């Protein structure tokens, strides 16, 4: 199959091209960038030299010759392309936030009208696998909600409160320089931001409801001076105490058939560059602390997008994705 990456000059676009080198059934033949049109993809992504001979282009999206389109563009930009892509019968995986929430919730959280809303599967593969299988259009989850939801899912039904405390690498902010990503502000530093109001909270709450959880849910993100990775500490508060052995078994059973979830001590090093989510739990009285790690650009974005593509196309879910992380 042929794939187009809309927004190929960005971090997730570049990561889609890198990961797709290992995919046996897909060739990328369109890589878009409005600003870099006419320049080689390797001028922006030098690590792809020798692997990608494409030139960035700015094509007419209503006349794309491709089978699958990945929308790796900022939120609110993706919705502008969806009607044309659907019209042409092209499968779509949207990495932006445009289709992750019901219309009214999206409009409230993102403060803008949705001009092309559709109810499509939320592509957190471990929880929505059946809905994604053979779907023509899937919404890829946010990076924080991916790691956080996987950390809480096995206990969601038993929890009355879930507090997610996440630390992210800087690539989560995308390729455009800003004061937030400016080296002296990030390096040798550590900050919390959007303490109570991050836009991913709505997705996290939505997934707890999907899991049948009555829990209240809170979230605070922090910015780590690393490029990739998200570590989430989920404090899961229960009505009754739970034993360590019981909670460990619950997590191991819940994820025993999941190819990309591993029960082991979480460390950013172990998942960097890979599609794995590593997690572990510890119980104390009425509280369980679950810690998860993912690479925000892989399981948190482009890797999960390929996992979704595999489900949508009827291929083995792990196709092209079974590579380990990079330690150290
Ligand atoms: N970075 C991360 O860890 C994660 C990101 N995401 C989401 O994935 C999407 C992409 O993120 P990321 O790669 O980090 O972003 P970047 O800012 O690094 O890249 C954005 C890309 O989109 C293109 N673009 C921007 N505006 C438009 C537009 N209106 N129409 C077409 N192309 C456009 C840019 O190129 P040009 O302007 O030249 O066209 C560029 O190629 C975002 O929605 C982001 O929120 C999701 C999970 C994790
Ligand atoms: C460091 C940083 O700024 N991170 C981003 C997460 C970006 C992201 O990937 O959000 P989506 O998945 O919704 O696109 C943030 O906090 O908004």
TrEMBL record:
Pathway: Amino-acid biosynthesis; L-arginine biosynthesis; N(2)-acetyl-L-ornithine from L-glutamate: step 3/4. PROSITE patterns: ARGC. Keywords: Amino-acid biosynthesis, Arginine biosynthesis, Cytoplasm, NADP, Oxidoreductase. Its EC number is 1.2.1.38. The active site is at 143. Its main location: cytoplasm. It is found in: Cytoplasm. Gene3D superfamilies: Dihydrodipicolinate Reductase, domain 2, NAD(P)-binding Rossmann-like Domain. CDD domains: AGPR_1_C (cd23934), AGPR_1_N (cd17895). Residues 2-135 form the Semialdehyde dehydrogenase NAD-binding domain. It catalyses: N-acetyl-L-glutamate 5-semialdehyde + phosphate + NADP(+) = N-acetyl-L-glutamyl 5-phosphate + NADPH + H(+). One of its GO terms (cellular component) is cytoplasm. One of its GO terms (molecular function) is NADP+ binding. InterPro entries: AGPR, AGPR_AS, AGPR_dimerisation_dom, AGPR_type-1, NAD(P)-bd_dom_sf, Semialdehyde_DH_NAD-bd. Pfam families: Semialdhyde_dh, Semialdhyde_dhC_1. PANTHER family: N-ACETYL-GAMMA-GLUTAMYL-PHOSPHATE REDUCTASE, CHLOROPLASTIC-RELATED (PTHR32338:SF10), N-ACETYL-GAMMA-GLUTAMYL-PHOSPHATE REDUCTASE, CHLOROPLASTIC-RELATED-RELATED (PTHR32338). Belongs to the NAGSA dehydrogenase family. Type 1 subfamily. NCBIfam families: argC. Catalyzes the NADPH-dependent reduction of N-acetyl-5-glutamyl phosphate to yield N-acetyl-L-glutamate 5-semialdehyde. This is N-acetyl-gamma-glutamyl-phosphate reductase. The gene is argC.
